[in-house]
Amino acid sequence: MNARTDTPQTAPASAPAAPTAPAAPAQAEPPAAAELPAPAPTSPVPVTADPDRSGPDHQQFVDWLRMVAPYIHAFRGKTFVIAFAGELVKSGVLNALVNDVALLHAMGMQIVLVHGSRPQVEEQLALRHVESQFVDGVRVTDNAALECAKEAAGELRLDIEAAFSQGLPNTPMAGAQLSVISGNFVTARPVGIVNGTDYQHTGLVRKIDAESVRMSLSHGKVVLLSPLGFSPTGQAFNLSMEDVASATATALKADKLIFITEVPGVPDPVGKMMQEMSLRTAVERLQNNHLPPDVANYLQHLVKALKGGVPRAHLIPYSLDGAVLLELFLHDGVGTMLSDTDLESLREATLDDVGGIVQLIAPLEQDGTLVPRGRHLIERDIGNFSVIEHDGVLFGCAALYDYPRENMGEMACLTVSPEAQGTGDGERLLKRIERRARALGLERLFVLTTRTEHWFLKRGFVHANVDDLPEDKRKLYNWQRKSMVLMKKL
Ligand SMILES: CC(C)(COP(=O)(O)OP(=O)(O)OC[C@H]1O[C@@H](n2cnc3c(N)ncnc32)[C@H](O)[C@@H]1OP(=O)(O)O)[C@@H](O)C(=O)NCCC(=O)NCCS
């Protein structure tokens, strides 16, 4: 998403709209030093940039590239398990995904791909006029269905390998030179007989050969896994892509597990897509059992991976072109990101916190960073504050003041104690205030700042004028302090 807590500290608040793809560089290779002509005498005509080859598009492109740079640095060398539903291939967007994966690989990320095959297995079954049986949403894989699963996986592997082998000039794959490795990395066991149903060749992951996968990754390969596994007796089992992916991410201690599916993300209780979700909330939502079954299915595997030590897990839609890039390189992402961060320490303030807040902001009031507000005002407005607490000590706070007439909110008093700065607490407080503002139906959040302009700009705020402030705030604006007005659309 994601500021989402996995946003690199230097990351842009939100990358501007990507400019249209630049054409391949028009200039020829520079000549070797020996071929260089002697320097020409200084021209009396001043050399200026060619107006046809400069302009706002160029600047936008440079700005955009610079803004994604922190993410590239942060993700280099990291291991991502990316699982995609068979529906993605069926809908004809495999090449686009492969292009994006090749780009991630070129940026230094280690990628394991896991493909699904549900619609392809269905197609094979239909060709053979065989009907498959499902119990509790799980396929019972008889001999015919197993043959279909093998056939489907084989074809998909070939299609995926072919897509990775493209390299036509003027395509995103030009010069990619990427090799894909598959193998018997997944050991499976049968589901067995459950509640009287014999699931036959339907299996579960028993073990992932993490060492071999890691070795392939370290040699610069993309590892491709199918939803099939083998038992030590040599039997094949039909597995789910979700099971293979979450078991692989856990076994590899991957940095991210990403599901690209027909489901766009996890909706909140009123149906709005959640950008971010804590492990605890995810577990609660699964227990409450109010989620659509397909969302619940993906979510339970993401939760399993998080419990297994994977720090971040994402659910994103394949229907959005470039979804994986947008999720990784945009501040807010496009799907839902689950994180194992213990969010318990971030909470709304109570009257017991007044003393801690006073202590926290006192040095900043003294040096003029914050406007002094006095204990009585904090006491009066305590309900507006959110705080971060570790072991009973407050390390950060921020307050939200709403202006319902203008549908605007002000974030005030944002403070993180010096010993905790630089670990993302400021960002978490901002997110919390944004969430509170959205819950109040506010459309814009503003801050008045004298010294923290860049921190806010990186997090999606833009410059605004005093005239843009709500009327009541405008009347109180201190012209001597000359605070900058920064605003963010929620
Ligand atoms: C601004 C503040 C809340 C950020 O909290 P934080 O927990 O350190 O924030 P994060 O960890 O999410 O972000 C840290 C990044 O912000 C940068 N940053 C911190 N203060 C900054 C500032 N004044 N201007 C620009 N960037 C700043 C850090 O250098 C760090 O960047 P890096 O990762 O490239 O090193 C904290 O520095 C603070 O309390 N400052 C003093 C009070 C203040 O200025 N409040 C704002 C009043 S409007």
Automatic annotation (TrEMBL):
Cross-referenced SUPFAM superfamilies: Acyl-CoA N-acyltransferases (Nat) (SSF55729), Carbamate kinase-like (SSF53633)
Please provide one cellular component term from the Gene Ontology annotations of this protein. cytoplasm
Recorded hits in HAMAP family, A to Z, give: N_acetyl_glu_synth (MF_01105)
- Compositional bias (Low complexity) at which positions? 7-37
Organism this protein belongs to: Cupriavidus alkaliphilus
Provide the top EC class.
Answer: transferase
What pathway does the annotation place this protein in? Amino-acid biosynthesis; L-arginine biosynthesis; N(2)-acetyl-L-ornithine from L-glutamate: step 1/4
Other comments?
A: In bacteria which possess the bifunctional enzyme ornithine acetyltransferase/N-acetylglutamate synthase (ArgJ), ArgA fulfills an anaplerotic role.
Q: Which InterPro entries match?
A: AceGlu_kinase-like_sf, Acyl_CoA_acyltransferase, Asp/Glu/Uridylate_kinase, GNAT_dom, NAGS_kin, NH2A_AcTrfase
Q: Where in the cell is it found?
A: Cytoplasm
Kindly state which reaction or reactions the protein catalyses. Answer: L-glutamate + acetyl-CoA = N-acetyl-L-glutamate + CoA + H(+)
EC number(s) stated in the UniProt entry for this protein? 2.3.1.1
N-acetyltransferase domain location: 344-490
Q: Which UniProt keywords apply?
A: Acyltransferase, Amino-acid biosynthesis, Arginine biosynthesis, Cytoplasm, Transferase
Specify whether DNA damage is a keyword of the entry: no
Record's protein name: Amino-acid acetyltransferase
Q: Give the gene symbol.
A: argA
Q: GO molecular-function annotation terms?
A: L-glutamate N-acetyltransferase activity
